Amino acid sequence: STWVTDMGDRHLTIGELAKRTGVATSALRYYEELGLLPAPGRVSGQRRYPESAVGLVGVILLLRDAGFSLRESKALLASRTQAGEGWR
């Protein structure tokens, strides 16, 4: 896929994602390792996340604050993806 697109489809480095979400880069890498965040594309070996990753990290934090474990959060997020309609 191509990563150089117009400003409306900008991709974030892991540092930018960390700054936008308040989550440490190490935690973002851990979320990726667990499968909570999809593996991002890479440019010159550096992760590039779509803007939508900001919202996804927000959902992960919301679930954590509601008492869900990361494992439970992964199952909920996976069921949302499979349904194709998102949250209702």
- Kindly report the average pLDDT value: 85
Number of strands: 3
Low-pLDDT residue spans = 1-7
> Class by helix and strand content?
mainly alpha
The largest beta-sheet arranges its strands as 1-3-2
What fraction of the residues are assigned to beta strands by DSSP?
5-15%
Helix content: 40-55%
Largest sheet: 3 strands, antiparallel
State the separation between the terminal residues, measured CA to CA: 30 Å
What global shape is seen?
globular
Radius of gyration: 13 Å
User: How would you spell out the order of helices and strands?
Assistant: EHHEEHH
- What is the overall number of helices? 4
Task: Give the helices and strands, then pairings.
Layout (H helix, E strand, L loop, with lengths): L10 E2 L1 H8 L3 H10 L6 E3 L2 E5 L1 H14 L4 H14 L5
Antiparallel strand pairs: 1-3, 2-3
Description:
By secondary structure, this protein is mostly helical. The protein has four helices and three strands; from the N terminus they run E-H-H-E-E-H-H. The protein has helices at residues 14-21, 25-34, 52-65, 70-83; strands at residues 11-12, 41-43, 46-50.
Brief overview:
This protein is mainly alpha-helical. The chain has helices spanning 14-21, 25-34, 52-65, 70-83; strands spanning 11-12, 41-43, 46-50.
